[in-house]
Structures are given as structure tokens and as C-alpha cells.
Amino acid sequence: MQDEKKNTRSFPPMRDWPYYWISRVNAQYALVLEQQLKPQGINLSRWRVLSSLYEYGSLGVSEIADFAILRLNTTTKVVQKMAAEGLVKTQVSASDARITQVSLTEEGRRQAVFARAVAQKILEASFSDVSKADRERLNKTLDRVAMRLTAMSDGGPEPDDAG
Predict the structure, then answer these.
(1) Buried b vs exposed e over 74-83: b needs ≥16 C-beta within 10 Å?
(2) How far is it, in rounded angstroms, from Cα 95 to Cα 101?
(3) pTM > 0.90: yes or no
(4) pLDDT tens profile 102-125
(5) For residues 42 and 115, what is the distance between their CA atoms, to the nearest angstrom?
(6) Checking DSSP bridges between strand 100-104 and strand 88-92, what pairing results, if any?
(7) What distance in Å separates the CA atoms of residue 159 and residue 9, rounded to the nearest whole number?
(8) d(C-alpha 112, C-alpha 54), whole Å
(9) Could you tell me which residues are beta bridge partners of residue 71?
């Protein structure tokens, strides 16, 4: 019981925990973005697929899942729906028949441009009082944390080993 109290006391209050703020900001961003994209028939998963393809061009489904931060089965379903709606085209990779390459159609590109403009406005409004230097510092810090977490999930050092 004493150890449990000690561990509870050493855990920071939620508002002092960066993951609280990361989760809160992400949830609010997703809510605002979805509210603004929904009238155009674009949900968050579709937005992530559109954005990944717009930025990187033709990608395999697993690459889209990685860039879009979606599960592979979710990405596959989204891509299939988007293909049926004429937003993307798919074809078997010439170099590896196990890979389905996905690219935007003209209509998909139009939706991607629209969605990216909406996301840009949200970015500008939500960071209006944050300097470019602070934003760059935030991005670099979050990139370092993400890389550390990725290394941990890939069998790297345990949290107690972090130095």
C-alpha cells in the first residue's frame, strides 16, 4: 500500500503531463477539422489518405497507412471506398504484385486541395499567436519524442533505461 501511494504521488498531475496536452490538442483539432470537412463528405480517415497521396504521389496501401497514421485494414477499406467513388485509382505494382499502388484521380486531387486549404486555415488560426521559432521548436521536440517512442515500440530501451 505504501509503494502504491509513493508511485501515485510521483505521477504528475494531468495538466503537467505532455501527453495530456498532445491528446487534448489532437482531439480538438480533429473535431474542428471534421466539422469543416464533413459537409464535403470528407471524414478524418479520408482526409489523411487524400493528404498523404497529395503530398507523396502514388503510394502502396501500407505506405498510406504509415503516413496517415491509420491501421492497415482501415486504410484498405477507405481506399476501396474512395476507388468506388472515383477519388483514387489502384493498380498492382509493376515491381511487386503483392503491393497495390494508389494515386489520386482529378476529383481526388480536387478534394485534397480543398481539404488541405481547410486544414491550413485551422493551422493558421490555432497557431496565430505562436511564433515561427516556437512552432519549429515544438515540431522538433515532438519529432524527437515520436522517434524515441518508435524505438521503444521496436524493442529499444525501456522507459527506465531512457537517458
Answers:
(1) ebbebbeebb
(2) 11
(3) no
(4) 999 999 999 999 999 999 999 999
(5) 8
(6) antiparallel
(7) 19
(8) 7
(9) none
Cβ atoms of 54 and 104 within 8 Å: the answer is yes
Any idea of the CA torsion for 29, 82, 61, 100, to the nearest 10 degrees?
Answer: -170
Burial grade of 158 (CB within 10 A; 0-12, 13-18, 19 or more): exposed
List the one residue out of 91, 87, 84, 85 whose CA is nearest residue 59.
91
Please answer whether residues 140 and 97 qualify as being in contact, where contact means their C-beta atoms are separated by less than 8 angstroms.
no
Residue 56 φ then ψ, to 5°? -105, -5
pLDDT of 141 > 80? The answer is yes
Q: Could you give the maximum distance between any two Cα atoms of the chain, in Å?
A: 64
Residue type, 78: V
- Which phi and psi (to 5°) does residue 17 adopt? -100, 115
d(CA 32, CA 138): 21
> Are the C-beta atoms of 61 and 72 separated by less than 8 Å?
yes
Which alpha helices (DSSP H) does 38-163 contain, by range?
44-56, 61-68, 72-84, 106-126, 132-153
Which among 61, 91, 57, 90 has a CA at the least distance from the CA of 74? Answer: 61
Determine the Cα–Cα distance for residues 54 and 47; give it in Å rounded to an integer.
10
